[in-house]
Design goal:
410 residues; alpha+beta; 16 strands; binds histidyl-adenosine monophosphate
Length: 410
């Protein structure tokens, strides 16, 4: 028997309904904040992803050549693609642009619970607003979206300027190696790298910065940081809005394009793969042929949110099974149409079962059955049976629909 590819998942209807319900709640928050949906291709020119991050990232991607010999990659994330689209299609549009997306990404990673090769992100990008209030909007929006999902999480906010100030004077490739250790919280690896660079003294300051939770202490460790007032202003706005977060200047972010404020969200009930959100301020447009436009955004790891929320519980809805005899079928089809037009999920027997078997089958999903035999077909009535209470009555179709709708979801 053929199986799905490693690191991918199938979703049965209960799970899909639960996913769509959570997605819908996040979408509603995006709508209320003015973030409008965009969509980019599933695959892009490989260069889009290697331009900033280097060839090393190829290891972590699905890369292929098409029949025309073009080097392409399945998108490992959406930000670069959204900025590519902004440069191609909307560079002259009035700014700021508030965009959001819900889309699948592909990363060639070692699969485990919460880490997949195909996974979905709900993300937002705020393009063309280089201000503290823009940074604060993005962090606040992230929190509201996570709140809407019902997940329990912790939010950690930092800023790359402090770490970068400590690392100034170190060549960019080495800085990247150090940041990669910090991103993975691999402190032994960090010490080794610093030792080989004869920068052992830096280790103490980096460790102190990573564990520091106060802003003044962090500035004292990092030294004179450019843009200090902007950082203070952003955090003051977050404090004023009552947002629950902790400071963490050890956040390095795995992707290379971040330039300023960075933040991450962690689910409280997940194990190793507990990061459910990541984002920050970044600059990418100028690397893709556009102007140097400041942007800020984040992506929610939708699958991890679903793992954190637990077993799928699809939202309840009214379900009716329309049950009929051979003679009642024509009328039953009309009645089923009336129920569907009223918005009720309505299912009919397709296998030619007898009335008893049809009711038994319907009772697995439905709260009511509507029975139509020759008597009902002739009189234009239906027999409505409430499968919860066992109550049964003969009535007209409009009243039956009203009763099902007023009974509410089961
Ligand atoms: P990221 O931190 O690489 O950031 O990914 C965002 C989220 O996607 C992670 O926090 C995690 O929850 C989820 N995620 C990542 N890899 C996997 C995986 N293999 N399986 C399941 N979930 C995963 C970005 O992608 C940036 N583009 C976010 C951003 C938007 N920054 C600015 N704008």
């Amino acid at each position: 028997m053929l199986q799905k590819p490693r690191g991918t998942r199938d979703f049965l209807p209960d799970e899909m309904e639960a996913r769509r319900a959570v997605e819908g709640r996040i979408r509603e928050v995006a709508r209320r904040w003015g973030y409008r949906e965009v969509c980019t291709p599933e695959f892009e020119d490989l260069d889009l992803f290697t331009t900033r991050s280097g060839e090393g990232i190829i290891e972590e991607m699905y890369v292929f050549e098409d029949k025309g010999g073009r080097k392409l990659a399945l998108r490992p994330e959406i930000t670069a693609a959204v900025i590519r689209m902004f440069v191609n299609e909307a560079r002259v549009a009035p700014k700021p642009l508030r965009w959001c997306y819900f889309a699948d990404c592909f990363r060639y990673e070692r699969p485990q619970k919460g880490r997949y090769r195909q996974f979905w992100q709900f993300g937002v990008e705020l393009i063309g607003a280089d201000t503290a209030v823009a940074d604060a909007e993005i962090v606040s929006l992230a929190a509201e979206m996570l709140n809407a999902t019902g997940v329990s999480y912790e939010l950690k906010v930092g800023h790359l300027a402090l770490m970068r100030n400590l690392l100034r004077g170190i060549e960019p490739a080495a800085q990247r190696r150090i940041m990669a250790h910090l991103d993975k919280k691999d402190f032994d690896g960090l010490d080794c790298t610093l030792d080989t660079m004869v920068k052992g003294d830096l280790a103490e300051s980096l460790h102190a910065l990573v564990s520091c939770r106060g802003l003044d202490d962090a500035f004292a460790i990092a030294g004179p940081v450019p843009g200090k007032e902007r950082i203070e202003e952003t955090l003051a706005m977050l404090d004023a809005s009552g947002l629950a977060y902790s400071l963490n200047f050890g956040i390095a972010r795995g992707l290379d394009y971040y330039t300023g404020m960075v933040f991450e969200g962690f689910a409280q009930n997940l194990g190793a793969e507990n990061q459910i959100l990541g984002g920050g301020a970044y600059r990418l447009a100028h690397l893709i042929g556009g102007d140097d436009v400041a942007s800020c955004g984040f992506a929610i790891g939708f699958d991890r949110v679903m793992v954190s929320l637990g077993d799928p519980r699809p939202e309840k809805q009214a379900v009716v099974g329309v049950v009929c005899t051979e003679e009642g079928r024509g009328r039953a089809l009309e009645v089923a149409r009336a129920f569907r037009n009223a918005g009720v999920r309505t299912e009919m027997d397709l296998l030619g079962h007898g009335i008893g078997a049809q009711i038994a089958r319907a009772s697995k999903t439905a709260g009511f059955v509507v029975i139509i035999g020759s008597r009902e077909a002739e009189s234009g009535t239906v027999t409505l049976k409430n499968l919860g209470t066992g109550e049964q009555k003969t009535t007209d179709p409009a009243s039956a629909i009203e009763e099902v709708l007023s009974d509410g979801p089961r």
